[in-house]
Amino acid sequence: MRCFHDLISASNELLSAEIEKIQSFNRDIQILTTEWRKKADARSPDWSNFGDCLKDEFSKTNPRRLAACIDEKGSFRNLNIYEFINQHTRIISNDFVRSEVVYLKERLNHLRENYPEFSSQTDSIEHDYIEQLDYFSRDVGDISQEHWIEQVKSCLEIWNAMEKEWRTGSGYRNRVIKHWEDWVVTEESKKIHQSLLRKIASAWGRVLVERQG
Prior knowledge:
By secondary structure, this protein is mostly helical. The chain contains eight helices and two strands.
């Protein structure tokens, strides 16, 4: 009878130790996510005005194609500035996210060392983290494109000013670029960019928050 009692006692101790281990693992995951989230809120890529990147694109574009793009308010099929903004934003975001992935993988590797018995759970969490970060990179491109279509395409003053430069002599692209450069530093352009940054910040703030609940 005593043997049976000792067996039950040992089983209970093992069960208690296992429960404690699970709780410790979950607690460390929570700490990892919370610490990353706090630090991530203070980090951000260089989101300078996206209009700046279009100057080089304009300068190397055939004048007729550039004129067609301007005539379509930026949505010409062979030079769609809104798709360009989407890709430009994704490139910046991908570079930024890559460093975040490296940080998280390093932290998760420490957990694998401390909790080898939970390696499959750690792998699943890592996959989930990376999936959310990748989604952010895709999402931020779409957010930027939609925002520009909504806000910039309707800025008729800049489009009309550039459109009037067609067939007014040599140096067409330079005149268009000058109009664009002047517009990018206007209060209107800055407000459009700031409102976009708020949308991006909101999307960034949602990354990994599901793991904190």
